[in-house]
Amino acid sequence: MSWSRGNPPRRGYHHGNLREALINAALELISHKGPAGVTFAEAARHAGVSPAAPYRHYRDRDALMADVARRGFERFAAALEKAWEEGRPSPAVALERLGRAYLEFARTEPAYFSAMFESGLDPKNFPALQEAGDAAFAVLRRACEALVATLPADRRPPALMVALHVWSLAHGIASLFARGDAARRPIPMPPEELLEAATLVYLEGLGIRTPA
What is the pTM of this model? Predict the structure, then answer.
């Protein structure tokens, strides 16, 4: 989908699913202009509908962006669940897969990634978005609970703290070095190796053994 100087055809509501058309338009705008470049008027124009049409589904531009971010988090959570695979064959091995899935999502879904983390929305104002974001983080938290459980009971750090630390590592590397848009910064190694090394140092500092 690309911009043209002429006005797009006014296909109205009979052209298909308006909500889907608006979400796709928002993603396309994000990919070219970032989240700040999405306006109601431009999303409507991109979808080929009247400026008033989006109000049939969304009260304002932030509600549209929240819906895009929610969908992104749902896809993200599914990717993380698949990578975690209930901690098989071991929590440490599965956590490495989970980290790679985090980077892969940033690489292959940069528009969703931006909508999820860079839209400036307060999730408390959008319950469905908050629920989807919490569900994605819950996968990482369960992984860290399984890791912590491999330590003796008197040496176990809080699983939530570990999850927040690992999330910070994965998200920082994804945001800087693994994303699939022009914001990615070059480094002399694959981002997966950087994350693996950082996670290894962190976990071994906690006394958690990781596979060679």
Answer: 0.89
